[in-house]
């Protein structure tokens, strides 16, 4: 029975991953994610339901459009697989806790925002701002269920602190920090604060550490210069997930070492 539950969670993840592919393509182009139905960018032919099954259809079509033979990027099935794996991993790691829906939503949003930022160097308000509402509602429901009002207040405080900190950075160095990053920082702060202050510290620090190491690597490989624009959103998200998963453990280990 337990295996069946994880299989069902994975199937849901695949379906949501398929929808995320639509979001990743359409939202930056200010197009509706509901209508019209998905079509091939090459020949504009509408994609039939049999060709829209997550991962499986891509494999059966050998990564090409049935009508014109245009190549379908491998990113599509990878996004679907990544979402499914994230959903299964979170469900396995957390169990069916009251805050599980909040984490599942963040996982889906993280994948969409990371891919969009890599594509167009932008974190759309259409995704980030509604995510505040979802996070507040989901975490508030979890707090009421588990008597975690203290965690909810800490989440609000952490969200405000990270928002203000990133806002100050954006004002001090506007070429290196966009306001999309500022808005995302507040959202991630809510989740990190829900877990604990150790998660906040590790999550915030890891974003700059990972982003800095990646930038240095690009410069050393001569694939970017010191003035190159490198999207920071993916590293904010990666750092946040590091903070959410092992932040408290790493922070306690650090304090034990120092104190």
From TrEMBL:
<feature type="transmembrane region" description="Helical">
    <location>
        <begin position="6"/>
        <end position="27"/>
    </location>
</feature>
<dbReference type="GO" id="GO:0006465">
    <property type="term" value="P:signal peptide processing"/>
</dbReference>
<keyword id="KW-0472">Membrane</keyword>
<dbReference type="GO" id="GO:0032259">
    <property type="term" value="P:methylation"/>
</dbReference>
<protein>
    <recommendedName>
        <fullName>Prepilin leader peptidase/N-methyltransferase</fullName>
        <ecNumber>2.1.1.-</ecNumber>
        <ecNumber>3.4.23.43</ecNumber>
    </recommendedName>
</protein>
<keyword id="KW-0378">Hydrolase</keyword>
<feature type="domain" description="Prepilin type IV endopeptidase peptidase">
    <location>
        <begin position="105"/>
        <end position="216"/>
    </location>
</feature>
<keyword id="KW-0808">Transferase</keyword>
<dbReference type="InterPro" id="IPR050882">
    <property type="entry name" value="Prepilin_peptidase/N-MTase"/>
</dbReference>
<dbReference type="InterPro" id="IPR000045">
    <property type="entry name" value="Prepilin_IV_endopep_pep"/>
</dbReference>
<dbReference type="Pfam" id="PF01478">
    <property type="entry name" value="Peptidase_A24"/>
</dbReference>
<comment type="similarity">
    <text>Belongs to the peptidase A24 family.</text>
</comment>
<keyword id="KW-0489">Methyltransferase</keyword>
<feature type="transmembrane region" description="Helical">
    <location>
        <begin position="151"/>
        <end position="169"/>
    </location>
</feature>
<dbReference type="GO" id="GO:0004190">
    <property type="term" value="F:aspartic-type endopeptidase activity"/>
</dbReference>
<dbReference type="GO" id="GO:0005886">
    <property type="term" value="C:plasma membrane"/>
</dbReference>
<keyword id="KW-1003">Cell membrane</keyword>
<feature type="transmembrane region" description="Helical">
    <location>
        <begin position="76"/>
        <end position="96"/>
    </location>
</feature>
<feature type="transmembrane region" description="Helical">
    <location>
        <begin position="127"/>
        <end position="145"/>
    </location>
</feature>
<feature type="transmembrane region" description="Helical">
    <location>
        <begin position="200"/>
        <end position="220"/>
    </location>
</feature>
<dbReference type="InterPro" id="IPR010627">
    <property type="entry name" value="Prepilin_pept_A24_N"/>
</dbReference>
<comment type="function">
    <text>Plays an essential role in type IV pili and type II pseudopili formation by proteolytically removing the leader sequence from substrate proteins and subsequently monomethylating the alpha-amino group of the newly exposed N-terminal phenylalanine.</text>
</comment>
<dbReference type="InterPro" id="IPR014032">
    <property type="entry name" value="Peptidase_A24A_bac"/>
</dbReference>
<feature type="domain" description="Prepilin peptidase A24 N-terminal">
    <location>
        <begin position="11"/>
        <end position="92"/>
    </location>
</feature>
<keyword id="KW-0997">Cell inner membrane</keyword>
<keyword id="KW-0511">Multifunctional enzyme</keyword>
<keyword id="KW-1133">Transmembrane helix</keyword>
<dbReference type="GO" id="GO:0008168">
    <property type="term" value="F:methyltransferase activity"/>
</dbReference>
<dbReference type="Pfam" id="PF06750">
    <property type="entry name" value="A24_N_bact"/>
</dbReference>
<keyword id="KW-0812">Transmembrane</keyword>
<keyword id="KW-0645">Protease</keyword>
<feature type="transmembrane region" description="Helical">
    <location>
        <begin position="232"/>
        <end position="254"/>
    </location>
</feature>
């Amino acid at each position: 029975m337990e295996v069946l539950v994880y299989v069902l969670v994975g199937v849901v993840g695949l379906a949501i991953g398929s929808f995320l592919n639509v979001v990743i393509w359409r939202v930056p182009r200010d197009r509706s994610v509901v209508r019209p139905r998905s079509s091939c960018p090459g020949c504009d032919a509408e994609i039939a339901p049999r060709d829209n099954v997550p991962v499986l259809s891509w494999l059966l079509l050998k990564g090409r459009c049935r009508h014109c033979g245009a190549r379908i990027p491998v990113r599509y099935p990878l996004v679907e697989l990544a979402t499914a794996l994230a959903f299964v991993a979170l469900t396995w790691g957390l169990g069916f806790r009251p805050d599980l829906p909040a984490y599942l939503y963040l996982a889906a949003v993280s994948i969409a925002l990371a891919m969009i930022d890599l594509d167009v160097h932008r974190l759309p308000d259409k995704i980030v701002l509604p995510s505040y509402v979802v996070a507040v509602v989901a975490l508030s429901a979890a707090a009421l269920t588990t008597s975690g009002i203290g965690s909810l207040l800490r989440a609000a405080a952490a969200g405000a602190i990270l928002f203000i900190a990133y806002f100050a950075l954006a004002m001090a160095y506007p070429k290196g920090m966009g306001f999309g990053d500022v808005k995302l920082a507040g959202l991630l702060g809510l989740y990190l604060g829900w877990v604990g202050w150790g998660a906040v510290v590790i999550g915030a620090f890891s974003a700059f550490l990972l982003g800095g190491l990646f930038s240095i690597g690009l410069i050393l490989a001569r694939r970017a210069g010191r003035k190159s624009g490198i999207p920071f959103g993916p590293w904010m998200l990666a750092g946040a997930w590091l903070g959410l998963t092992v932040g408290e453990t790493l922070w306690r280990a650090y304090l034990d070492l120092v104190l």
